[in-house]
Amino acid sequence: MKEVDCMKLFAGDMKELTRSKQVHKDLPALPTEKDITRLAKNCRNFVRVYGFIMNFLTEEERNFPIAYSILVFKDAHQVTQLLQAIYRPQNVYCIHVDQKADQSYRDTMAAIADCFHNVFLASRSVDVEWGRFTVLEPELICMRDLWPFKKWKYFINLTGQEFPLRTNFELVRILTAYNGANDVDTVETKLDDRLSSAGPPPHGIVPTMGSVHIAVNRDFVDYVLHSPVAQDLLEWTQFVAIPDETFFSSLNHNPQLGIRGSYKGDLPLLDTRPEMFANKFYQDYSRVALECLHQRLYNHTKDEFLGMMEFDTSYYSNLAFVNNTVTAEEATQILDTESTFISALNSLTAMLGMF
Question: In which pathway does it act (predicted)?
């Protein structure tokens, strides 16, 4: 961004910050939904204008595809910038358009998706309301839509108001350093008021509270979609306040469930780590910040590709949730024990039925 010195802004220069506020007022109007839809009719031109990277860049990235869900409802240009920033041809992207969004916005998102083989709109749209089950529902829809794509290794969920702080290469390095661990926040808090109307959780699950934003391995998504225990917990969370902050966190912090990568340490999880994404950007007043982040991400991507920049993952590989995780072997053992118990219980029930 030529109008401001982004490096000074990142360094906290107050004079440049003050100047950037005036620059923001003088910036030209952003592309409208109609502009973007018109541009996307020529996909090659759309890709060129927005600067999409249509190459996997490194073998390491090629061999570590990531699945994304993106919940959107406004600001088509900002969503396009987000998609451009995280796009690689080996990844796969599910875009959920809020049911409240008007048809022109949905048409714009559909036009964008049509330009890529690995971007699609969610199979179903819901009317998302904060604090309700509908905040969680789009994530589950996208998980199910993404599941048939067999190669992705981790799932990350975003909203249209977020932007990456890491390049795709760095994300791959971080997720590789996780070694199968699931990145699901939790905090120690009193849940009595939130759970009072729901009754006790099923299957002896100890409920926890965390963020709906997650980075989880494929086995976690498999469990969410196909485990009867997860389905029972999902049914239960529909009666708690803010279910989206309870469901994923509770699954990941009950290691007795046998989910690979879940956390088996003591609560609370208090690691403070360099985040992979920042959220709550709004193009109406965060435009300079977004442009500077975009420039930073581009420069880092270029320098990494040219071998001019290294990325140290030792911090991430030493996080508590990475070193206190349910391994694949432990998960198999837990699930086999549970299966044996259920089989024995069914046999006993059948025998008793004979008398």
Answer: Protein modification; protein glycosylation
Does 101 fall in a domain? yes
- Long-range contacts of residues 27-30, Cβ cutoff 8 Å, at least 24 apart: 27/3, 27/287, 27/288, 30/77, 30/283, 30/287
Q: Are residues 214 and 270 in the same domain?
A: no
Q: Do 137 and 151 fall into the same domain?
A: yes
Mind listing the pLDDT tens digit for each residue in 82-95? 999 999 999 999 99
pLDDT (tens digit per residue) in 241-297: 788 889 999 999 999 999 999 998 765 443 445 788 877 776 766 788 888 888 888
267 close to 149: Cβ distance less than 8 angstroms = no
What's the farthest any 2 CA atoms get from each other in the chain?
A: 86
Domain count for the chain, please give it.
Answer: 3
pTM greater than 0.85 (yes/no): yes
Q: Are residues 43 and 96 in the same domain?
A: yes
DSSP code at position 127: -
Long-range contacts of 265-271 (CB under 8 A, 24+ apart): 265/320, 265/321, 265/324, 267/186, 267/188, 267/208, 268/186, 268/187, 268/188, 269/185, 269/186, 269/187, 269/320, 269/321, 271/319, 271/320, 271/321
Is the same domain home to 48 and 114?
yes
Residue 88 in contact with residue 61, Cβ under 8 Å?
Answer: yes
The verdict on 271 and 180 lying in the same domain is no
What is the C-alpha to C-alpha distance for residues 166 and 301, in angstroms, rounded to an integer? Answer: 9
What stretches of 161-278 show up as alpha helix (H) in DSSP?
A: 168-178, 192-195, 218-226, 228-237, 247-252
Q: How far, in Å, CA of 259 to CA of 82, rounded?
A: 31
User: Which residue spans within the chain are E strands per DSSP?
Assistant: 66-72, 92-97, 119-121, 154-159, 163-164, 183-184, 214-217, 277-278
- Fill in the amino acid letter for 75: D
CATH number for the domain harbouring residue 246 = 3.90.550
